[in-house]
Each structure stands twice: as C-alpha cells, then as structure tokens.
FAD-dependent oxidoreductase (Caenimonas sedimenti), 448 residues
Amino acid sequence: MAATVSSPRVVRAERIDAGAQVPVAIVGAGACGLTAAIALRDAGVDCLLLERDATPSGSTALSSGFIPAAGTLAQRAQGIADSVDGFAQDILRKTDGTAAPHLVQAYAEAIAPAMDALAAHGLAFEVLDNFLYPGHRAHRMHTLPQRTGAALVGALAGAAQAAGADLLPSARVDELWVDAGGRVLGIGYERPDGSTDLLGCDALLLACNGFGGNASLVRELLPEMADATFAGHAGNDGSAILWGRALGAGLADLGGYQGHGSWVVPQGALMTWAVMMEGGVQLNAQGKRFHDETAGYSEAAVAVLAQPGGTAWNVFGDRQLALARSFPDFVAAEQAGALRTAPDRAALADIIGCNAAALAPEIARFGPPFHAVRVTGALFHTQGGLDIDEHCRVRRHDGTAFLNLLAAGGAARGVSGNAVWGYLSGNGLLSAVAGGWIAARTMRLGTP
C-alpha cells in the first residue's frame, strides 16, 4: 500500500498483522545496531537491522571512528596499562559526577569485551598512543588503521553480515506497535517509493541516533545551539524521543551533547583536536586566546561561537601540522584549501585580520612559520535520550522497565551528564558499542 512519509508515532493494538516475525528487530545500522547484531549472531540469535539509508552510515560514519576502552587486548599488545575503574573515574570526573553512575560502570566494564569480540571478527584495532585526548589518563582511543568513522561502520557492517545478520536498507521506521501493557509487538516502516510494511518482533532495540538533526527539538532542548552548524547525520531526527514521549517513557540528560570547536569553515570538515592537545591555540578575530583548549573540544564549540562572528582560528606550528596530517579528515580539509601558512607574525595577523601587536603571546611556543585554519563551533551529536537501566532496557517515568524495548547509543541517555562540558572524548562511540553489546546480552539472556 502507499503512504506519505510521516513523523514517528506509536500504534496501540492487541496484535500486529505483520508479514514477517523476527526474534530481534534493530532500528539503525550504525555502530550500536551493528555491534548488537554481531553479538546476537555470535549467540545464534536471528536479528534484522532496519537502516534508513541505502548503506549503513549514520553518526558513526561522520565521526573520527575512535572508541575509548580500558583493558583490551589491543592495549596490552601495545604495553598500555589501564583499568576499568580508572576509565569510569575519568568519565565521572569530566561530568563533575553528574553522569548516570549505573551506565558509567556498565559501559566501562562492557567496552573491553565488546572490542575484543569485534577484533575476533576481523576489526584490526590499534590504540592511538602519541597523544592523550582531553580528560583521559591513559591511551585508550581504539581505531582501525584507516582512522575514519566510515571505515569503522563499513567494517562493522561487513562483520555483521558475515555473521549472518540480516540488513534491510532504505527502510525508514516510523511506527512502534505496542499492546495495552506496553509490550512491543512490532514496527511499521516505509520504503523510498512510499510503500509500507509491518514487521513483528519479540524484542526491539532502538539504535537510531539522537535529535541533533531535528531543528525544533534542538531549539526546545538545546537553545544555545539553535543557530549552530549541525555537523551530524540527517538521521538524527529525534525519533526515539518522540516515541518515548508517546509511550510515557522516561527521558534523561536532554541538555547533554557533543559539540566541537574545530569545524573548518567554509570547507565544512572536522579538524582533529590533537593539534590543540599538542600545543596549538585558538585565537579570535582580534588575535586573542579566549579559553583553555585542553579542557575539551565539546565545550570549545560554545566558546568559539561566543567570539566575534562566531569563528576562530586554530593556530599551530610545524610539529602540530605533521601530527594533523596523520588524520584523513585534516588531509581532506587541507586539500580543500583550509590551511593558511604565515612566515612571520605580521603575515599571521594579516590572515586573521588583526593587529600584529595584539596576537596572543602563546604563539611564540611553536613559530614561525605559523599555520592557521578558520573554524566555528558545531553541534555533532546529542547525548540525551530515553532513560535506560544498566541492561539498556527503556524505563518508564516511575523507573519500571518495558519488558522488550531496549535502547542504546544516541537513542538513549549517554554518560556525558546534562551539559556540553560533560562530554569526554569518545563518549558517543563508547555508548554505541558498549550499549549495543549490553543490549544484545540482555535480549539473549534476559535480566533478573
């Protein structure tokens, strides 16, 4: 039958007349959904991933693809000492203790076995060990050799399908069917030609990202970023929140999000924050340094947007440039003309448009020559969503859990607290991979 594209909604019924029934349906084939699918297939559980895009991508593909984890085989192979407790403490410290403690502990414990299992499926993780990201006491950022999110999601998709997971692309899920007791019966979805289908399921995992691409929800919940560039995926349409509101589910940490203070303009690309952690500085249009860059790139988004014109210049030297060129995102931005080089202070001032005498004294630490890239603050990914327990089961307002509805990754609350400054580097992919892993375990074994 034909239908027009509609907003996410809940259909209440006692049964669903679906053409097919699956043990587990997963909405979204990003890092969260794909990790869950791999874990389910390892346990012999059939599952179907429904992905709105023609190929899996989502926020994962737009990220740097770096996953923080403590106690992995990859860390040990590189001689890196780390611990689950230390990782959990770093997450909580970044949020000043405001992150959900049950999720912090659950994710910190689950991420290493999840990563080791993914490695067994052929994902060749290595740990970045030449610099520390803000807030991390140990080298724990895991990456594939390509160092891109696109490579990560591609490898996960390949592993999931090789393990026997079924993938239905170009399927936009817009209906959740539930009975009077709140048990999920199935879902309804649309194809690009407007045709619709129903699918029954025994359990449902929402792995469908956040709400950064929904302008009305951003204005409502994140007013400070209402006019900021959204550098995330269009699939971040807030479906999980809208379904949650209709179901009477709890929502949490809706003020938390991942910003980034290094979105290259006008080229529209991400510049690695490694440059800032290795001595680079951000200067405004007056040549002034306006914040502590080592505090974190997420809160830097707000600091940059507060500057004249809502932009700043990343300024750095030859050593930082060599490091930046090891990241494909920066290479692409440089090829697009983002990098400017000045032989002396006067030339740098000309690039920025300020008086040479006004340039921050910190630039003396790395030049000349000086390198500069113009950036703005951007919204990348929201960190609030459906309230979930430590098993990734969605909870109602009274704290009770829905029996067969789970959420993780961007669809659920994360571990970044309720503000931009609580985001610890890698929290998004931590929640996605660890959450997907835990959700699969819950659907496989059940919970007490």
User: Anything to note?
Assistant: The chain has two domains: 9-255+384-445, 257-380. The chain has 14 helices and 21 strands.
